[in-house]
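Hey, I was hoping to borrow your eyes for a little while. There's a protein on my desk that I can't quite get my head around. The fold is given in discrete form, as structure tokens running alongside the sequence. I'd be grateful if you could look everything over and explain what you see. Here's the protein in full, and shout if anything looks odd to you:
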Amino acid sequence: MHKGGRALSPVPFDGRRLGSDFQLLRPPRDEFMVLGGMMVGRDEIRHLIRPWRSLQSSSIASRILVRYLADRFRCPRGTRLLLGNALVGRLLFSYRQIGGALSMNTSLETLCIEHGRVTGAWVHSNGVRWRIHARRGVVLATGGPSSSSAWRSRLMPERDLPMSLAFEGNTGDGLDAALSIGGVLDQRHASPRSGRDLQFGKGDYALNRYNGDPDTAPNRCLSPIDSAPFFAVRVTPAPIGSSMGLRTDADARVLDQRLEPIAGLSACGNDMSSAMGGTYPGPGITLGPALVFGYRAARHAAGSMAEGVTQT
């Protein structure tokens, strides 16, 4: 594994700044929150678990808990946003600041082609079928196929994966639409490697050590289990993303079977093939490239006029 680079965490964002738009922000999975809706940073866990360990821990834990309790008088969950929620919340806030509009509960049906160019899409929104006209092009960012049982069977026929950790709407709509007009899939797999933990390689990667217990030495990811009480937890494999996606060029334009750009069609995020060649070097491996290639796609289509929308 090549060394270099680092994981970047978004600055915490105050969800109260979103006003009524806060309800549009999808909360993290329940397992990633505590007390029914409080987000906690990785470095804060040790302070919350043992707040009496030091004055610093007591201060940090108290501040987080008081803020959360105040939030719950007004909101269904905490408004102190971290990690991906902070990123999306800040993007939504910035988008609204420049007058951006949103269409919620909208699914992609098919892409529109005119004279060999993608010029828009048919979508369903709140029971209504719309055609969206795009003068400069369409960027697919539908979340990939992880929640589609058909796609999971197609990509991993040798595995029984009855469930997914991804959002239930990530069913591969963008991939289906692109493939129907000649887009190409680019599927990659990482090669396994052994680690110092001879059986599972725990603690062998910098990412593992970063997510480990800083109070455990010499390996943050390994510790003897020799003190009661003991508990058993059922572990079920489930995908949350895929390294497979549409093949694109450096400007995120989707390529056809001849590896030529499909005019007017781009892709980013989980709809685009992994920029990391199938490996998982760290958290945010879909959000980071989504930002970069979404930006490149927009730059390539810069100068577009406002899109028109008609109803049928």
